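[recover] target loaded
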């Protein structure tokens, strides 16, 4: 009886020790990823094509992202994958038009090589924060499947709620060593005095590698952000 009790206690102690060691390793890895966030990876390595995920939002968000993509080094950030909310067809249509115009401008190129996908929205406009908890969980599961499929090296987003679960999963991928994705977040020009909910979460949690704002007063309020002027 005493031997069985002693063996059970030893197994329990071993399990607790392994759990503590695992949690410690994860915490150390999280701290390392946060420390490395925003820093260049390897300047000595030659430039290579980077699989790029572009998160589109409805209305003005897509217009801002299109303006940003116009100055993108297309040969460097390729292949490109566009993601928009399941209820947003207009944004993906605009992205297809942009990619088609790029393909037409290149001699010898037939068709477009970009991917276009839709994702469940984390939170609809006007939706209560209570009900958005469930929709965020659903969107996160869907986002996980898409991120495993794409495994982007660069994530570009500018405020749509759909970007948050994608960015969180990209951060988790960095922690567990699946893929190191550089996350670039550009706050919407409509945000003059305070950040959006997505932007605030990404800023406070230090998930984004580079965080850009379009108004100088926002940069003063959030000093880790970079002021880039108006993109529109």
């Amino acid at each position: 009886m005493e031997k069985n009790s002693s063996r059970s206690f030893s197994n329990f102690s071993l399990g607790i020790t392994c759990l503590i060691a695992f949690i410690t390793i994860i915490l150390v890895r999280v701290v390392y990823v946060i420390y490395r966030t925003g820093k260049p990876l390897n300047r000595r390595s030659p430039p290579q094509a980077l699989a790029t995920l572009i998160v589109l939002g409805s209305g003005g968000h897509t217009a801002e992202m299109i303006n940003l993509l116009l100055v993108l080094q297309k040969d460097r950030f390729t292949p490109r994958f566009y993601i928009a909310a399941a209820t947003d067809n207009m944004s993906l249509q605009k992205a297809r038009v942009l990619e088609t115009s790029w393909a037409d401008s290149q001699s010898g190129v037939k068709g477009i090589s970009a991917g276009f996908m839709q994702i469940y929205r984390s939170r609809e406009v006007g939706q209560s924060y209570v009900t958005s908890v469930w929709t965020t969980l659903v969107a996160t599961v869907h986002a996980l499947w898409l991120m495993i499929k794409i495994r982007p090296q660069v994530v570009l987003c500018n405020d749509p709620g759909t970007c948050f679960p994608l960015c969180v999963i990209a951060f988790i991928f960095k922690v567990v060593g699946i893929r190191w994705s550089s996350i670039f977040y550009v706050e919407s020009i409509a945000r003059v005095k305070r950040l959006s909910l997505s932007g605030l979460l990404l800023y406070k949690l230090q998930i984004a590698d580079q965080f850009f704002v379009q108004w100088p007063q926002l940069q003063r309020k959030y000093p880790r952000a970079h002021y880039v002027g108006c993109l529109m």
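[recover] notes: The longest strand covers residues 80-85.
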